Amino acid sequence: MRKLLFILCCIPLLAVAQEKGIQFEHQTTWEKVKAKAKAENKHIFVDCFTTWCGPCKYMSSTIFPQEKVGDFFNAHFVNLKIQMDQTKEDSEDVKSWYEEAKRFASDYAVRAYPTFLIFNPEGELVHRIIGGGEADMFIAKAKEGLNPETQYVTTVKRFEQHPDDAGIAKKTAQVALASYDNKLANRAIERYIGLAGAEELLTAENIRLLIQGASSSKSAAYQIIRDNRSRVDELLREKKQSANDVLSSVLANEFVGPKIRNKEKDLDFAALQATFEKEHPYVDMAPILTHAKAQYYFVQKNWPAFKDAVNEMIATNNKNISPTSLNSFAWSVFENCDDPACVQAALTWSKKSLEAGEQPAFLDTYANLLYKSGDKDNAIIWQEKALEKAVDAEKSAYAATLEKMKKGEPTW
Predict the structure, then answer these.
(1) CA–CA gap between residue 232 and residue 244 (Å, rounded)
(2) What does the pLDDT look like over 345-401, one tens digit per residue?
(3) 3-state DSSP assignment of residue 166
(4) pLDDT, tens only, 42-99
(5) Which of 183, 279, 324, 330 has the highest CB neighbour number within 10 Å of its CB?
(6) How far apart are CA 17 and CA 15, in angstroms?
C-alpha cells in the first residue's frame, strides 16, 4: 500500500515536470507578482491581450506553448497574462483584474495588441514589445528587455539625460519606432537631425529613419527630403519608391486624411489639387489624391462615385495597385451595392486581381460577383475553383457559398 501511495503521489509531480511552454501566474494580484519577482530576482513578463486579437491568439496557441520559449521565459521571468477587454464569458479570475487592466492601459500606454511589458525585479517598467512573432525572434526581443543597453525605458532615460548625444538620439528613435511610440520617435529624429546634420541622414543606412521622421510638412525631416529630392530618389530606387511618394503621403495624411475621417460633406478634390499646386508646387499630388478620393467615397458609402474613383485610380496609377487592393475594392462593392454598373466594374477589378495568381479569396470574390450579376453557371464554376484551392479552415465557408449558389439563394 505504501508503494502504491508513493506512485500516486508522484503522478502529479511528473505531470508538472513534463509541462512545456510559458508558465503564467493564476489566481494572483499585481502585488503578489511583484513580490514573487523580487524574491526570485526575476523580471516580470506581462502579456497584455484581448479576446478578439488574432495575433494574441496565435501567440497563446502556437508560440507560448513551445518548449524553448517556456525554458527561456520561465528561467528569466515571472509571467503574467492580463486580459484588456471584457466579455460575458470572463471567469472570476479575469474579472478580478478588470481595474488593474484599466490601470495598465493608462499608466503604460497600452494601445495596440498584443503589447508585452517587461518590468525589472523591483516592479519598474523597463521594456515594451509591440506585436508578436515567431519563437526565436520573440525570445530575441525579450532578451533586449533584460539588457540595460537595449531596454526601452532605459533608452528613453538616457535620451532625456544626454540631449547633446547624436548616437543616443538615433538609438532612441530606432527603439521608439520598434515600440510604436511615434511621438518619441519624432522627437528623437528631430534631435538627431539637429545634432548630426542633413548629410548624415541622406545615407543608405539612415534614409528610412529620415522618412519616418517626416511626420508633417513642418518637420525638419520633411524639409530635408523636399530640398534633396534627387538624392532621396537615388536612395529609394531599389525599393521602387521616390521622394514624391514620401512628400505626397505626408501632405495627404496632414491635410486630406482628417477631412475623410471627419466625413466632411461634398469634399472638392479639384479644389484640393489646385491648393496643393499653389502651396506645394514641388509635389505631384494627383496619384495619391485618386486613392484618397476612392477612400472618401467608400467612407461616404457613395458606391457609384466609389466606382468612378477606383476606375480613375486604375487608369492613372495601374502599376501601383496591388491585387489585394483590387480584390478589396471589388468585395466592398459586392457587399454594399446592387447597381449593375457598379457590379460590372467590380467584376473587372476582380478579374484583374487574378492575373497575378488565383488565390482562393480572390476566386471567391470573382465567383460571388458573377453570381450577383446573374451569371449563375460561371459563378458555380469559379466557386468550385475557390473551394478546390482553399485551405481546410476556409473550405466550409466556401462550400456553404457554393451550396447557396446551386440553390439560387443570395450570397450577400
Answers:
(1) 9
(2) 999 999 999 998 889 999 999 999 999 999 999 999 999 999 999 988 889 999 999
(3) helix
(4) 999 999 999 999 999 999 999 999 999 999 999 999 999 999 999 999 999 999 999 9
(5) 330
(6) 5
Indicate the pLDDT class of residue 19, thresholds 50, 70 and 90: low
Looking at CATH, the fold of the domain delimited by 340-412 is given as 1.25.40
CA 397 to chain CA centroid, nearest Å: 26
C-alpha cell at position 304: 457609384
pTM: 0.72
User: What is the distance between the alpha carbons of residues 407 and 412, in angstroms, rounded to a whole number?
Assistant: 14
How many C-alpha atoms does 219 have within 13 Å on its Cβ side?
Answer: 25
Q: What strands, in cross-sheet order, belong to the sheet with 125-130?
A: 77-83, 43-49, 115-119, 125-130
How would CATH label the architecture of 12-150?
3-Layer(aba) Sandwich (3.40)
Helices and strands counted in the chain (H then E)? 24, 4
Residue 373 exposed, middle or buried by CB count within 10 Å (0-12, 13-18, 19+)? middle
Per-position DSSP letters for 21-87, written without gaps between them: S--B--S--HHHHHHHHHHHT-EEEEEEE-TT-HHHHHIIIIITTSHHHHHHHHHHEEEEEEE-S--
Average pLDDT, the chain: 91
Give the DSSP H/E element, type plus range, for residue 403: helix 392-407
Q: What is the pLDDT of residue 35?
A: 97
Q: 46's torsion region: left (phi>0), alpha (psi -120 to 50) or beta?
A: beta
Q: Compute the chain's Rg from CA coordinates.
A: 27
Hunting for cell 544626454 — which residue is that? Answer: 162
Is it the case that residue 14 has pLDDT exceeding 90?
no
Q: Which of 14-28, 232-246, 357-371, 396-410 has the lowest mean pLDDT?
A: 14-28
